[in-house]
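Private note to self, pasted from the team thread so I don't lose it. Backbone tokens:
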């Protein structure tokens, strides 16, 4: 056997191929995958918030990856169920920290926000919440950011609307304290504004829906007291149960509600039984902005059903994260400072910006549920 000699041309081509392979490997090594956490209730009666919120975040990240928004970075969503309990939130945050998430979109409910923030702070993980609106976290220099204004603003607007537009003079309040960080401040703000405007509170009912066996006793008392209206802070499932109990007793009393119940589940489960309910909230579903209409279309194409406020706000919260990463040149360590100094963002619902505490500045709305959809009555700027 004699050794085979290679021509100079072949050797040159081999060297070029090796060089190209090295360049490709270097390019791959420069490309990184970044994990983004999502925290929310993915099962149970609050899952309408969690599932839609997860989907909104997923859509935003998929679109960012397709556009190569942050050069050299691919984003991956890791969703964790917080069970809508403080302990569940703490454990979920720990799991997200273990997979090296750089930020968390969530939580979705005010009741777990404090526990989630305490746990996330220990990991130096920023939280960007789509739907937490409790004023208990307002004005604090921490790792909590949000795209939904505090609910006390909507509550006062709702009280003014009821007294000035509908002439309400007497109300009963029914608030579910299973979500006390949300219901408590909303109830307090509504009550104080309603009384300040000359209204009378006939009864202030704090319930725990997790241990409530029937709405019959409450409905009978409402019927006996005969208020001009009732104000409720309930989930969509409990709101539907209350409305259906009203129907069974042929009771027709106007209902004013928090944003908590204003999900697609209310449309499906309650329908005409909840027709005419008035909401004070931070989202307008009948918004005709091109950005909103385009989002609704893209969401339906991706997931096969309509979006709700949780999806739209989660998409916006994820945009805050993405713009922060872009401003920080893809460095997660610079993310909190970058998000604090972002300019006004166009948003899906409306333009918004964050202040130096990570709290949002944006419009809120008075909405009527027709039994089929949600229609805006007023925009409060």
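Design output:
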């Amino acid at each position: 056997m004699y050794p085979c000699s290679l021509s100079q041309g072949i050797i040159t081509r081999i060297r070029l191929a090796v060089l190209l392979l090295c360049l490709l490997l270097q390019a791959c090594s420069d490309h990184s995958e970044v994990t983004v956490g999502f925290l929310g209730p993915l099962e149970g009666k609050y899952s309408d918030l969690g599932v839609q919120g997860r989907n909104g975040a997923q859509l935003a990240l998929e679109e960012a990856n397709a556009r190569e928004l942050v050069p050299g970075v691919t984003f991956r969503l890791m969703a964790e169920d917080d069970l809508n309990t403080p302990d569940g939130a703490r454990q979920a945050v720990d799991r997200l920290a273990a997979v090296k998430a750089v930020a968390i979109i969530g939580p979705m409910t005010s009741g777990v926000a404090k526990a989630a923030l305490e746990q996330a702070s220990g990991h130096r993980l920023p939280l960007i919440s789509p739907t937490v609106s409790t004023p208990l976290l307002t004005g604090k220099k921490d790792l909590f950011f949000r795209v939904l204004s505090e609910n006390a603003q909507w509550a006062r607007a709702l009280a003014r609307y009821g007294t000035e537009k509908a002439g309400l003079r007497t109300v009963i309040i029914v608030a579910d304290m299973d979500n006390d960080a949300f219901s408590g401040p909303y109830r307090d703000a509504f009550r104080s504004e309603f009384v300040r405007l000359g209204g009378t509170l006939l009864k202030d009912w704090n319930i725990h829906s997790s241990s409530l066996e029937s709405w019959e006793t409450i409905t009978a008392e409402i019927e006996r007291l005969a208020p001009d209206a009732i104000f409720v802070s309930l989930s969509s499932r409990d709101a539907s149960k209350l409305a259906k109990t009203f129907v069974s007793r042929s009771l027709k009393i106007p209902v004013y509600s928090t944003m908590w119940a204003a999900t697609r589940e209310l449309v499906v489960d309650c329908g005409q039984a909840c027709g005419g309910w008035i909401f004070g909230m931070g989202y307008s579903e009948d918004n005709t902005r091109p950005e909103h209409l385009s989002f609704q279309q893209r969401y339906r194409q991706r997931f096969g059903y309509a979006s709700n406020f949780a999806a739209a706000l989660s998409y916006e919260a994820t945009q805050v994260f993405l713009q922060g990463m872009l401003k920080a040149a893809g460095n997660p360590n610079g993310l909190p400072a970058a998000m604090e100094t972002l300019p006004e963002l166009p948003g899906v619902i409306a333009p918004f910006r964050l202040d130096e505490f990570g709290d949002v500045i944006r419009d809120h709305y008075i909405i009527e549920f027709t039994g089929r959809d949600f229609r805006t009555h007023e925009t409060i700027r």
